[in-house]
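New to this. Please check this protein:
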Amino acid sequence: MELNQVTLPVENMNDAVHFYLTLGFTQIVDTPHYARFSCPDGNATFSLSLENDGFQNSAVIYFEHENLDELCNTLTEKGIEFEQPPTEQRYLWKEAILKDPSGNKIKLYWAGENRLSPPWKVDIRA
């Protein structure tokens, strides 16, 4: 099985689309209530769904980038604001935190081999 996509709720489609295009994603579906993007690397996609009623999304979406510091510097120059600059975490990932215009939490990170093979890895199957 492979993960197809994650869909994030947004309050303003135009603001959200502009934000994700600024982050470097390619828009592949464009409607007034739904947008879909492909990631710059790999085959992963994600989408945005316009929510007319208020919502609260406590999910966190992660985007991995090997040159995290360089990416964050470039995005800062483009006006993207970070809640946390790239910071080494105790679980061996380096993460930067930001929010999209609708308040969805995003972590840009680099984990290298620790993403799939951390020192505490287990292999449990049914």
